[in-house]
Design brief:
mainly alpha; binds fe (ii) ion; 166 residues; elongated; single chain
């Protein structure tokens, strides 16, 4: 199995997009289905953001200083998503703001993932090369085993908070 970091992150994006579709296809008053989809979204985003924040972004920033601005922008975009995720995790699906908040989260994350896939990943692939991407992917698979799955777990928000508030 390939451990290419970009392949791994793209696969996670696919899972995240699938969970977004689950939410979107649930009916207006299907609170149980919406709640379940949002639980899944929160879990996937918490893991994915953690792996990018803790491993991918710092390593790429170090090795490719020319993409530093992209990394800083990404930390800010993760931060916006974190805020919404934390609020959603504390909300009931029948709250009148639940679906609206989820929709805004989805719009933000889709924009961010599109940018990573279309603009950032190609630059990183070009700049880092195959071997480094394999090593990075292996490090992410290892970290995935103990990664936080809920925003309330230790370490879930650390790097974004550091990057934004430092
Ligand atoms: Fe990201
Ligand atoms: Fe991503």
């Amino acid at each position: 199995m390939s451990t290419d970091a970009i392949v791994l992150l793209k696969n996670e994006h696919k899972e995240i997009r699938k969970a977004f579709r689950e939410f979107e296809k649930a009916g207006e008053a299907a609170f149980a289905a919406k709640g379940k989809a949002v639980d899944r979204i929160i879990e996937l985003l918490t893991i994915h953001t953690y792996l990018e924040n803790e491993i991918m972004y710092p390593r790429v920033r170090e090795l490719l200083p020319q993409v530093e601005d992209d990394v800083l922008e990404s930390y800010e975009e993760h931060h916006v998503a974190d805020v919404l995720v934390v609020e959603l995790a504390a909300m009931k699906p029948d709250d009148e703001r639940f679906a609206a908040k989820t929709t805004v989260l989805i719009e933000n994350v889709v924009h961010h993932m599109d940018e990573e896939e279309q603009d950032w990943f190609p630059k990183v692939r070009e700049g880092l090369g195959r071997k480094t991407l394999q090593d990075l992917g292996a490090a992410m698979l290892e970290a995935r085993r103990t990664a936080p799955r809920r925003p309330s777990q230790p370490g879930a928000l650390k790097k974004t908070v550091d990057a934004v508030l430092a």
